[in-house]
């Protein structure tokens, strides 16, 4: 019986046979109900293997029942106990950021698995697996105002990987960087400072490519003495330029008085003069990205200035040029998705959809809807963490559809925008649209009741 069930579980897991999973589950349940308390008719690991196979098939009820049957008797202290805890963590994984209590419940089982696996070097791989699993179900919380709920648990995951000296330094560095952001989000500046110092040293020794990321966080959130950071950054001209860019960004975000145009010109001249041609492009891109994120009125194009002061931006030639750029962007997004490289390129290209929103402000019927729809769908398909950008896209699409009296589609986009709108920007800017959407919903409900 044991070997028969094992074959069925293997077929369900490896060959994706749904019928094999159902048959294995029925046999396991029957054996557990009929077996003597002191005698196991089947090996206990089969319950965990069947639960893991059920997860692959999306049958969470079967998975839950298998894990319950596994714990009906005292489980053996081996890797399957640890894997059972991981199954319980996945069963309790949060589906949205609106339920942090669910995250705590899932983390409870995850930490049980980690603490068990840490005791035996043979099970160290399960500590790594648990860290990956943790990152997957914490994804809904990886955005401003929600990272704080991860701080305590992520700290324990990072410490566990450090305790076993996991050799995937890149992965550990990414988790440490995320931990810095979690403490910043929670307002614990002292903890964030300590973690950032350790992370800076860790990346400098093991993952040099992420060194500037940590330095940027330190400067931006003022987790380091700026004179010390400036001194350390002078080790190379490129690093020093990066520091100056981040320093400027910090001043802009803090609304401190600074001549942005003059400072940018200084940085630009230093880049052209002192950086090798191979590194010039990446440093210049960093300049553009950093200042764009800070919404500099000089760099981003004075988006907050009155429309009459920007008439030249809406001349016929400029609008036509924007439309050409939008069409090219549409082609590039389609190409990236078709090539299966959406995770690498789509996010970058979607950051350039700003011409679309500018054009819709003037003429809603311009060819913006299609590229915006493509970009929004591409980001949704990869579950992008560019939440604010996605919110803005759906807000613009709602406006486009509303202008065309396609209120049903507008409701769909506005609903998606509001679901991702943690800052309240969409609610503040679309009160009139919301009223129209509600009216459309009432009309639709009335038509349905008549029919």
UniProtKB/TrEMBL annotation:
Gene encoding the protein: CFAP46_5
Region (Disordered): 286-313
Protein biosynthesis keyword on record: no
Keyword Zinc set for record: no
GO biological-process terms attached to the record: axoneme assembly; cilium movement involved in cell motility
Biased composition (Low complexity): 286-296
Protein name: Cilia and flagella associated protein 46
Keywords: Cell projection, Cilium, Flagellum
């Amino acid at each position: 019986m044991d070997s028969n069930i094992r074959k069925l579980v293997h077929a369900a897991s490896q060959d994706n046979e749904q019928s094999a999973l159902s048959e294995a589950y029925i046999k396991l349940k029957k054996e557990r109900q009929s077996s003597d308390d002191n005698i196991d008719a089947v090996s206990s690991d089969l319950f965990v293997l069947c639960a893991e196979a059920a997860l692959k098939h999306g049958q969470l009820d079967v998975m839950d029942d298998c894990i319950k049957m596994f714990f009906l008797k005292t489980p053996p202290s081996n890797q399957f106990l640890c894997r059972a805890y991981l199954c319980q963590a996945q069963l309790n994984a949060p589906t949205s950021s609106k339920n942090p209590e669910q995250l705590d419940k899932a983390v409870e089982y995850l930490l049980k698995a980690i603490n068990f696996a840490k005791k035996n070097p043979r099970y160290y791989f399960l500590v790594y697996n648990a860290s990956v699993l943790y990152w997957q179900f914490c994804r809904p919380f990886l955005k401003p105002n929600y990272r704080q709920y991860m701080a305590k648990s992520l700290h324990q995951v990072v410490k566990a990987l450090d305790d076993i000296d996991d050799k995937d330094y890149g992965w550990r560095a990414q988790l440490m960087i995320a931990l810095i952001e979690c403490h910043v989000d929670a307002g614990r500046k002292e903890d964030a400072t300590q973690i950032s110092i350790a992370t800076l040293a860790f990346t400098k020794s093991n993952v040099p490519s992420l060194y500037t990321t940590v330095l940027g966080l330190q400067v931006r959130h003022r987790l380091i003495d700026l004179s010390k950071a400036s001194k350390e950054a002078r080790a190379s001209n490129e690093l020093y330029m990066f520091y100056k860019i981040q320093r400027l960004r910090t001043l802009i975000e803090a609304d401190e008085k600074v001549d942005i145009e003059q400072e940018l010109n200084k940085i630009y001249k230093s880049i052209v003069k002192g950086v090798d041609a191979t590194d010039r492009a990446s440093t210049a891109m960093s300049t553009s990205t950093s200042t764009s994120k800070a919404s500099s009125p000089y760099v981003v194009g004075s988006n907050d200035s009155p429309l009459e002061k920007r008439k030249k931006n809406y001349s016929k030639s400029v609008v036509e040029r924007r439309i050409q750029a939008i069409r090219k962007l549409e082609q590039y997004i389609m190409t990236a998705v078709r090539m299966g490289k959406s995770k690498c390129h789509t996010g970058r290209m979607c950051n350039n959809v700003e011409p679309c929103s500018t054009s819709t402000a003037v003429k809603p019927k311009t060819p913006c809807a299609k590229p915006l729809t493509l970009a929004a769908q591409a980001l949704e398909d990869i579950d992008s963490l560019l939440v604010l950008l996605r919110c803005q896209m759906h807000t613009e699409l709602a406006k486009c559809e509303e202008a065309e009296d396609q209120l049903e589609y507008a409701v769909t986009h506005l609903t998606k925008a509001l679901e991702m709108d943690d800052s309240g920007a969409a609610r503040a800017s679309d009160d009139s649209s919301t009223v129209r959407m509600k009216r459309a919903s009432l009309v639709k409900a009335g038509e349905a009741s008549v029919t």
